[in-house]
Design brief:
Length: 173
Amino acid sequence: MKKKLLNMSKHLVKSGALGLKCTYLLFRNLLFIKMLRFNCVELYDKIVIEGNEIELLWKVKGCHRISIKGIGSFAGNIHGIKFKLVDINQPIDITFHGIERKFQKSLLVKGDKVTLINKFHTNSALPLATEVPHNSEELETSFCNEKLKTDFKYMFVEFEPFNLENYKPSNPN
């Protein structure tokens, strides 16, 4: 119950903040008499596969709200959006809202739906860790010198006398 109420309050705050941004941009455009000027709308990717994330970019001035059909409404001061394309066959309808007029643009997406002829499913199975019981054997944890055998036939040890002069720093400060 608390989680549902918290999610609903977050949604209300976000939509209220978006409404305030759009209203602020509308009044600012009215004050400075900024009329809607449209330059271009384009897709960043030339070929899109259905279900992939695409980036839609535009150049518009004097806009206070941008509506994209099936995606949502956005403040007019942004210059692009990333979203997942759900249906490749439907065009993307964008509406730019200015002071007195609206500009609508419909983009047809060049793309395709990819289907696999031979579908495959992967499944990785981890081996079960098994344990070998050592109950039948008794493990010995003792150390004795009789079992330790060393043979140094060709080993020579030479000791060099320690001379402090050899180990002084080369740049004394």
